[in-house]
Amino acid sequence: MRIKNIFLVLSVMLINVFSIIAQPTATLSYATLEAEPGIIELPMTVDAINSDIVIGDWFCQFDQNHLNYIGITYPHPNFPADEWISGSSGDVVELHWVASDFLAEEINPGEALFIIEFEWDGVCSDFLWISAETGMSDNTFSQYDLTLIDGSVCGNSTNDLIEDFETGDFTKFDWQFDGDADWQMETDNPYEGSFSAKSGDIEDNQTSELGLVMDIANSGALTFYFKTSTENMYDELQFYIDNEIAGAWSGENDWQQVSFDVSLGTHFFMWVYQKDFTVGAGDDHVWIDYIVFPDESTPIVQADFFANFTEIEIGDTVNFTDISSGNIQSWVWSFPGGDPSASTEQNPTVVYNTMGTYDVTLTVSDGINSSTMTKEDYISVDDCPLCGDMLIIDLTNDHTSAEAINESLNENDIIATTMFVVPADFGDYQAVFVCLGMYGFNHVLTQNEGLLLQNYLISGKNLYMEGGDTWYWDNLQGNWTSVHPMFNITPLGQDYSNVMTLIYGQNGSLAEGLTYEFSSNSDYHDYIDNEYPAVMVLKSDHISNPGLFGRCVSHDAGNYKTIGSSIEFEELADGDNTKVEYMAAILEFFEVAYNPPGDYTEDFETGDFSKFDWQFAGDAEWVIDENTPMGNYAAKSGNISDNQMSELFITMIVAEPGNISFFRKVSSENFYDKLTFYINNEEMGSWFGDADWAEEVFAVDSPGDYTFRWVYSKDYAVSGGDDCAWIDNIVFPNNEQPCPPVVAGFTATMGNASMLFQSTSQGDIDQWEWDFGDGTYGSGENVAHYYEAGTYNVCLTVFSACDTTTDTYCEEITVDGCPPCVSYFDYVQDPNDIYTFYFSNVPVDSIASWFWEFGDGTTSNEQLPTHTFANEGTFEICLTVYSSCSYCADTYCTDITIVDPGLYNLGGTVLADGQPIDEGFAYLYQMDGDQIVDVFACFISEFGYYDFYQLEEGYYILKAELSPNSPLYNQYIPTYYGDVPNWVNASVIHLQANTWNADVNMIPISSASPGSGLIAGQIIKEITYKDEFGPVADIEVLLLDEDDTVLEFAFTDLNGYFGFNEINFGTYKVMVEVMGKYSNPAFITLDDENPSVENLNFVITGDNISLSIDENLPEYIFDISNVYPNPVVNQALINYNLTKTASVQVTVINMMGQVIFEQNNQSNQGYNIFKINTREMEIGVYFVQLNFNNSYITIRKFVKTK
């Protein structure tokens, strides 16, 4: 008889199943709340057959006043009464039985072994206690239930899943110690009771660790109290769940409770006190107490929410929707910057009237447990969303000059927004750059556009305009306007003279009354000289017209500044000065703060501390002063008294070795009050007395993180001089960051016969080159291309802006002359309102209109409607779409059934060669989010039918197998619904109504040819967090041929061993099949030289089953990375380094076991990057399986967000 994991289950009729942890002795209780007199029975049944029931001794004790023992019966014939000793009627019943005398193969699933009956007088203040010495290993589960025979009962299960350390030691649970000193018991000031746990005595750079491995029966909240007395921010109490940090605390903290959500399954919990390399504080210890592990009485409560908009304008309204999990009874919202600023509604509405970025916090509670989620910087409020510091208005047809202006602004650390029309509102842009184009492609401003720009200038802002056919007038709709930017900011026209040396300001324009005279010399400059009005000549070395000259005029009107250029910025060639430096001169003329590239100098000429990220500390902040060795401003220490200090510091990354230099001046009490300079807290020099301006230089020997600090400090008495210090003209080492890698990517949106390509590439990119796959090419970040109908391989190559690296991404696209007219849609039911549905994913390409019929007499012409039905029922939803490029229409219909959430039944027939099987088992697994839970087992009778009753709506996987008593047992393998041998490929049952036809056709065994070969091995499972493993029984192992045909199957014995004997020589695959775990197959070849393999070992760890505990990569694989970035938004990447060419099959599988992506690749020797387009994937957890040369398989996991 095969072995199955043992659970002791006692009926499932009235009160929820609850669990205890065997230690090996544990206690549980039913605390009654209210009831009527009646009789209770405890039928002990076997839910999953085991070859050796390991119960041991039972001891039951009852309050004689209210619970009276009636008797015990033994329904099972193979459970003889003479092997039991039962106590007399009253308050004690003792049951003893020798486990080895009773074998599991004599028991059928669901059969009761014994039934204990009690008479209950209905008083509800007492407890029914059951203590079990199970003989099971520590930290495994037993499950029990009560069934009411007569009367009524109300119960509440409680578990002893609390560690309060009141045993005075660490014996209640299987605690494990690690680090440099063990945790210890503490009697001084525990949170409750007499004891708490205290970290061990450790030194700097040491840890004290306390850990526990535990099987959690129900998802829920783990809570504990902690206290710390440590060096703040450096010596920490850290709490880990499964070796991932979940929380950390330091400093002086009195007892406080924290809560963490824990899912069902085996988990490793660890509390670590960790000290850094120096300094201690407080008692230098941490404490924990009163740990409550999850049980069914603490269901998981998880706060979560989303907003319909997160980037808004001032005055906009945001709707927040609660999507928390658990039986939520209350909601507490916090909206800093919002109106209201707090709410207790489930789904509040908030108005934001102040510009800024704001957190949102939601705390939910079920009346017992609570959970809080804060989304930092979640709501961004701006008067111009997504705007940069500057606005570029591009009115040309080629956009090249606007792109050059944008690049030069970026190089000067200025963010710009580009528009292609003149906006009615310019918001808070500091300056606007207008590109009009040249020659036959210039844009002539309309009267309205001219007035908008003129009003922007008059409001006190800055304007740069370029383009136009040098100097001439155009008649546009009867209004004379000048093409040249200096003059076409007015709608009024006037005669002109094409004299290149003298230009008069146009009457009615902003330049009225001004004369602009150009220099006659040939000394050309590509920067602005700030004269009033400033005039210059720009030289252009454009390849098509070398030596071309153009005019550029700047004008400072006092309340605004404007620049007009008759040539385009893009045409300027770098000479003595570069375009970036020219842009810096423009920004300086506009009095706009900027940071030119390679500028590592702080001269404080901004008049404040805004140029770099300066920080202040001490008793008074540094200030800006006019006492300076050069320029207008220097930094001066704050006004402080005796025993005080004033600190100014900055932290930056130094990219390469160099020097830091600065000028300093001190006027203080000699020897005692001084200016001190530090690098990373190391004193480099100090100055005192009357020390006039002098330069200091200090070496920075290596790249890295550095903090540069200037401190003016006073001693306890006496002052001298001006009692302060100054610094100026600081030159930092090179702090430019290394160039980030570039990664190419794009999306393609299809129209009738055109495709819009939008780059999703990552990195600092300055060039995008497209190969459209039809023999043509293009450039630019986002491009449109026209295609004939067909299939094309499109490639995008991106070029780094700061080095010579490139990256290429290719994708195959198919273009039809007119997309097919096909209707379809998806829908989602509102989680908080079963009558409301959201419709999505409708066809949009070449669709002119949409017509919805909801089956309740209502219709809609919206593209993506939301519809609320008035009542329950089944409704036929139809969408008809009409094409915009052909005379076609198409209709798609589907039914939606609305019922109150309830319970459903599932059944079907298990068939072997078309006939019902005679005896077997059906197992049903529920998909609960990303967890797979074994919920039921069912015995199949001679008619081959199975049934499961009263199941929740949800997703299920079904598995059927024959009983060893069946004559067909060795002819068919265990088979999943969908008629497949493994769960990954099983068909998932979405149970939302009674279903009676979920049939399974058992897969026959082909049988391996007989011979003298042998394949044998062992399966072990990770049981602790320290590389300790143990054998695991009852694991299914499949033997397959090279075509994946199943030849034999076996189950591991109690020691985890399996074997396939007397098989012919050949090549085989051996696959381990465990529900919810991904298996790496082993490829085995048997021949005369290798007739047997007897050490084929597999290890079960986490989600995977692999070939060994420390599985070695094949010789031709140097390494394989994890998925990155993780979580993933649009594209997942995996790197692998090969020593030779190899074929790689990449398969992506979702948590329901469905294959959603598969691709075969021939990878070259060396470093390879495989890219997976995840843009259309649903949010969730995914597994990536990589199969190298069809002989080595490994699995990676990633999370898809947004």
The general outline is globular
Spatial extent as radius of gyration: 39 Å
Number of domains: 9
What is the average per-residue confidence, as pLDDT, rounded to a whole number? 75
Separation, N- and C-terminal Cα atoms: 49 Å
CATH architecture of the largest domain: 3-Layer(aba) Sandwich
- The CATH class of the largest domain is Alpha Beta
Strand adjacency order, main sheet: 34-33-35-36-43-42-41
Tell me the number of strands.
Answer: 96
The CATH fourth-level homologous superfamily of the largest domain: Class I glutamine amidotransferase (GATase) domain
**Poorly predicted ranges:** 1-67, 79-113, 120-159, 469-485, 488-501, 518-549
- Kindly identify the CATH topology of the largest domain: Rossmann fold
**Main beta sheet, described?**
7 strands, mixed
Amount of helix: under 10%
Derived from helix and strand composition plus strand pairing, the structural class reads mainly beta
Specify the number of helices. Answer: 3
Strand content: over 45%
What does this 3D model show about the protein?
By secondary structure, this protein is an all-beta fold. It has nine domains: 131 residues, Jelly Rolls (Sandwich), CATH 2.60.120; 78 residues, Immunoglobulins (Immunoglobulin-like, Sandwich), CATH 2.60.40; 201 residues, Class I glutamine amidotransferase (GATase) domain (Rossmann fold), CATH 3.40.50; 119 residues, Sandwich (Jelly Rolls), CATH 2.60.120; 70 residues, Immunoglobulin-like, CATH 2.60.40; 74 residues, Immunoglobulin-like (Sandwich), CATH 2.60.40.10; 99 residues, Immunoglobulins (Immunoglobulin-like, Sandwich); 108 residues, Immunoglobulin-like (Sandwich); and more. Helix content is 3%, strand content 49%. The chain has three helices and 96 strands.
